[in-house]
Amino acid sequence: MRNMRKTILASGLLAFVSQTSAQIASVCPTNDVCFGLNIPEATASSGNGDIFFQISAPSDYGWVALGQGVQMGGSNMFVVYTSGDGNNVTLSPRTTSGHSPPDFNSDAQVTLLEGSGVTNGKMVANVRCSNCNAWADSSADFKVDKGDWIYAYQPSGGPKNSDDQSANINQHESAEAFSWSYASAKGGNSVNPLLNAAPSGSGSGGGSATGCVPRPTGAAATATATETDKSDDDDVSSTQQGRPTNFPYDQRPSWATASPTGRPWAPPNKNRRQEKRQEIKYCDEVSTAQFRPSGASSHQKMVVAHGILAALAFVILFPAGAIAIRLGSFRGAIWFHAAFQGFAFVVYIIAFGLGAYLANELSLLDSSHPSIGIAVFVLLIFQPILGFLHHSFFKKYHRRTVWSHAHLWLGRFVITLGIVNGGLGFDLAEERGSGSRAGKIAYAVIASIVWLGWVVAAVIGERRRTRTQNHPPKYSESPYGEETVLSEIPHPQNGHYGPK
Questions:
Q1: By the 8 A CB rule, do 310 and 351 touch?
Q2: What keywords are assigned to this protein (predicted)?
Q3: Which of 87, 152, 286, 405 has the most crowded Cβ, counting Cβ within 10 A?
C-alpha cells in the first residue's frame, strides 16, 4: 500500500512538473470556452517576439474570439470558426476602429499549429503570433505582469463552416474585457507549447490550467466519489479500494495523477474525506479563479450607475420638467420648473463625473459617446443662465426676446442630444461586452415614447399660447405659468395680446 502511494505521489508530481514546465496560463469564462497563453522566456525578457495562445469552444458555436486591448475598437482580434468541411478551424485575425464589424487584418503574422482542429465536439486553435507586441492602433509589452485582453463568442446560429477569413460573422452574444496575469504564462522555449495542453471544459477530457487535475466525468466521477468516501486505512488493499495499479502512466485516471491529500496515518472520518475533496485542485476551478475581468467589480458598477443616472436625467427628469412648464397652469410653475430642472442637472453632473472618469481610465475619450456627453454638459451650463434672462426680459417686455428663443431651442436640442447619446452609450457598452441588447431595446422604446410625449406637449403649449394671444382670459399665462392681471397687460396691438 505504501509503495503504491509513493508511486501515485511520484506520478502526481511528475504530472505537475510536466504541466508547469509548459507555462500555460488558462482562463475559462465558461465551462465550454477557454483560452490558454504561453509567453516564451525570450519574449518575456525582451518584451516582444513570439507568443502562443489557444482558443477553444464547442464546434457548434458560430465563432469564438480572443483579442488584445480593452475594447473592440482598436483591439488585435483573432476569430476562430469551423472550416468549410467542418473538420478543421479557420483562424481570422481582425481589427476595427469603431462600432463597425471587424475586418480581416492581413498584417497579422499568425500561424495555426499542430493540435488545431475539431475533435470530440470542440474546435481548438493553437496559434503562434509573431507580431502581437504591436498592431495598427496599439501595442503590448510582455515584460510586464499582466495585460489587457478581451474575449467574445457567438453560441447561436450553428457552426460557420467557412474557409473564408473575411467571412461575415453575427454579433456576439457574450463578451468581456479582462486583465490576464502573465505569472504562469511566462517560460519555456517550445516551438508548440500548446500541443499537449488540452482545452478545459465539458467534452474536452482535460484541462490546461497549470498544476491542476481534470475533473472526472461519467463513470470516472462516480468511481472517484465512491473511493473518496471509503476508508483510507493502510490495511485496505488497492484492489479493495477499486484502484487498479496495472495501467500505464499516460492512461491513469485523473485521481491517479493527483497528489494524495490528508495524513495517511489519520483515522478515517467524514471530516477527513471532506478535506480530500476540497484539496483536489480541479482545472475548471483554477480556470474560473484565474479569470478576473479588468476592474470588473468597480468599473462595472460605475458603468451601471452612470447609465442609470444619465438615463434618469434625460429620459425622465428633463422631459418631465419641460412638459410641466408647457402644460402646467398653476401659480409658481416657473419655480417648480426651475427646481425640477436644477435637480435633473445635479443628477446628470454625477453621471457625467462617473462617465468622464471611466472614459479616461479606459482610454475612451476619443469615442463619440463621451465626446457628445462632454458637449451636452457644457451646453447645459448655459441653460439656467438663459432661463433667468428669458424670465427677466419677459416680465419686462411681456413678450419673448432672443434670450427666450435661445433658452427654448437650446433646451430642446440638448434633451434630444442627450437621449440619442444614451443610445450610443449602450452601443459602446455592448462593444465592450458589458451591455445588454435587451436593455438597449428597452431604452430605445421608453426614450422614444417619452420624446414623442414631450414634443406633443410642446406643440400643445404653443397652441395654448397662440389662443391666449388671440383670446386673452381674465388672467394671462406666461410661458412659465405666471398669472398677470389683465390691467397689467399692455393694450392689444393689431388685435394681439402679449406675449408674442
A1: yes
A2: Electron transport, Membrane, Signal, Transmembrane, Transmembrane helix, Transport
A3: 152
Grid coordinates of 138 = 496599439
User: What's the chain's average pLDDT?
Assistant: 73
| Structural domains of the chain sorted by starting position, each given as residue range(s) with its CATH number in brackets | 1-290 (2.60.40.1210), 296-488 (1.20.120.1770)
How far apart (Å, rounded) are the C-alpha atoms in residues 54 and 311? 40
CA 96 to chain centre: 17
HEC readout, the chain: CHHHHHHHHHHHHHHHHHHHHHCCEEECCCCCCEEEEEECHHHHHHCCCCEEEEEEEECCCCEEEEEECCCCCCCEEEEEEECCCCCCEEEEEEECCCCCCCEECCCCCEEECCCCEEECCEEEEEEEECCCCECCCCECCCCCCEEEEEEEEECCCCCCCCCCCCCCCCCCCEEEEEEEECCCCECCCCCCCCCCCCCCCCCCCCCCCCCCECCCCHHHHHHHHHHHHCCCCCCCCCCCCCCCCCCCHHHCCHHHHCCCCCCCCCCCCHHHHHHHHHHCCEHHHHHHHHCCECCHHHHHHHHHHHHHHHHHHHHHHHHHHHHHHHHCCCCCHHHHHHHHHHHHHHHHHHHHHHHHHHHHHCCCCCCHHHHHHHHHHHHHHHHHHHHHHHHHHHHHHCCCCHHHHHHHHHHHHHHHHHHHHHHHHHHHHHHCCCCCHHHHHHHHHHHHHHHHHHHHHHHHHHHHHHHHHHCCCCEEECCCCCEEEHHHCCCCECCECCCC
The pLDDT tens digits of the residues spanning 300-329 come to 788 889 999 999 999 999 998 888 887 776
pLDDT band of residue 399 (cuts 50, 70, 90) is confident
CA distances from 247 to 252, 253, 258, 259 (A): 6, 9, 15, 17
